[in-house]
Amino acid sequence: MKISPATKTQKGKVYLDDRDLDRSDANGKQVVKSIILSQMNILILIDAQFEPENILGVPYSAGQVSTQISLNRTNGKLTKVEVIQGGILGATMGDGTYFSEEVCLPSKSN
């Protein structure tokens, strides 16, 4: 993960495996809403909206996912909270709030 803080002329950016997390195409849009950096934590808020779609003849409604990622810089604990509403994810996983945790290690380039 690479984070580029906002400047006076450019919005802050988050890159995961060199992919910009601000993405948009015909299927939907994902936007990094905010990035908060502190000495102890990194907090990232992401909203994604998906258009209605038809996969293998099965129609799915439009959907939305709001994600909050918190990374503790001291112990490497990453906490992710996702709120899923509609779309293929809502149909397959169920609408609701999902919580996950993992422990991360610093990249070798740091």
H/E series: EEEEEEEEEEHE
State mean pLDDT (0 to 100 scale).
Answer: 88
Q: What is the SS-derived class?
A: mainly beta
What is the overall silhouette? globular
Please report the distance between the alpha carbons of the first and last residues: 11 Å
Which consecutive residue ranges, at least 5 long each, have pLDDT under 50? none
Radius of gyration: 16 Å
The proportion of residues in beta strands is over 45%
> What is the tally of helical segments?
1
Query: What's the story with the biggest beta sheet?
Result: 6 strands, antiparallel
List keywords for this structure.
110 residues, 60% strand, three-stranded antiparallel sheet, mainly beta, 11 strands, 6% helix
List the helices and strands and how they pair.
Blueprint: E1 2-4, E2 13-16, E3 19-20, E4 23-25, E5 28-37, E6 41-50, E7 53-55, E8 58-60, E9 63-72, E10 77-86, H1 87-93, E11 96-103
Antiparallel strand pairs: 1-2, 2-3, 4-5, 5-6, 6-9, 7-8, 9-10, 10-11
Report on the structure:
This protein is mainly beta. β5 and β6 form a beta hairpin. The longest helix is centred in the C-terminal third of the chain and has 7 residues. The chain is globular, with a radius of gyration of 16 Å.
Task: Offer a concise description of the structure.
The protein has one helix spanning 87-93; strands spanning 2-4, 13-16, 19-20, 23-25, 28-37, 41-50, 53-55, 58-60, 63-72, 77-86, 96-103. With 110 residues, it is mainly beta.
